[in-house]
Amino acid sequence: MDLSMGCDCKQPFRAEVIPQTPDSFEMSAVEKIEEQFASLRIAKRSVLSEEPAYLLDVDVSGPAQSEGSRFVAVSCSNKSIRVYNRETLSFLREYSSCPGTLSGVRFARVCDSLVFSACSDGTVKCWDIRLATQKAVQVFSGYPSNVFISFDINCSDLVICAGTEKVETDTFLVFWDARGSTDCASTTREPLGVYSESHNDDVTKICFHPAKPSLVVSGSTDGLVNVFDINKDNEDDALISTCNSDSSVSFIGWSGKGYEQIYCTTHDEGFCWWDLAQLDTEEPIMLLRVLDARDSVCIENGSLNYLVGGMYHEKADRLFLIGGTATGDVHLISCSAAGLSLVGTLPGGHSATVRSFCWNLEEESLLTGGEDAQLLLWRPGAVERSLAKKMSMKVASSVQKRVRVHSSSLKSRKK
């Protein structure tokens, strides 16, 4: 398709195992991040909707085109997308006419008013939040049997890729040309093509490279994490690398200088990290494998029940994971070749499992959403002035029917 381990709990809380030859800049940068994270406080809390729902994924629009025009979009377990003002978390609009379960939410990189989501009805939809309408401005339709459970749009806003559930023996990565997504003359788009041979089970995650528009990584319940160059003519040539996590993949991402590394978390709270720069060398590409992060990360007077995902901090050249507890505490975890270590914890924000996050490195702010139906904005030294209170939401969610829930510390673990 041419589109041209273990840990020693006796260590002090702040102690971290650092690679053998760190430079002073890296050490000071990580320490600065630890201080910044420790200073985060709740600045804003969204008002509970009349129909509370799990907040499954969150994304923030790009640099504002004008003052005050930045947005937050959240995909919810009740098959809706909610849009909020970025600074105040005031509710703006909701798209609730989706016939199926939504998977992920992404803003276009160039136009900050366009937001996308994949749906189990076999479509990827695009909404323009400037318009007072529930109708999607563009619908990217799949093939009749497709049930989409993951998707992403590349860094140039030119290509969309969605991953499907396995139906009988078929599993697909489906691609579309995303150009002209607001062209009302053609509101439905057919696929450019598919990859059908590289996974043999549900494709749970899709993630394009942050700077190279032709590179995409996919993760699946078959345990495989595949890297493709979609500029190649066919699927066999496009497949650059296949890495095996030996478990069902729950999150994937890019990291490292030049973003030449990939990593994943798994549904049983494992973590794998690979260096693609070593593909053509004799060096091993595996940087780190952690079978169960809950047993690997030392937390004094606390616990780690699950991993939410990860993010790469360019200035510090360090990969971090976000995890948490069933009661809503948020943990920041640092990754190095020597293992995982706790950076800090944000307690008291959520009252239930945290499902989604978005960390803005430039503004030093963090957005978190959870099963308590709360969207929180954290800022350094903030003082919460909202009258909304933390609540425990005890409602059955439709997401439980389709999403593999995190293994908790209350369940028996494999030894």
Features of the shown structure:
single chain, mainly beta, Methylamine Dehydrogenase, Chain H, five-stranded mixed β-sheet, four-stranded antiparallel β-sheet, 6% helix, globular
Could you characterize the architecture of this molecule?
It is globular, with a radius of gyration of 21 Å. By secondary structure, it is mainly β. The longest helix is centred in the first third of the chain and has 15 residues, at 24-38. It has a single domain (24-401), classed as YVTN repeat-like/Quinoprotein amine dehydrogenase (Methylamine Dehydrogenase, Chain H), CATH 2.130.10. The strands form seven sheets. It has a five-stranded mixed β-sheet with strand order 6-7-8-9-13, with no helix packed on it. It has a four-stranded antiparallel β-sheet with strand order 1-29-28-27. Strands 2-3-4-5 form a four-stranded antiparallel β-sheet, with no helix packed on it. Helices cover 6% and strands 40% of the residues.
Write a compact overview of the structure shown.
The protein is 6% helix and 40% strand.
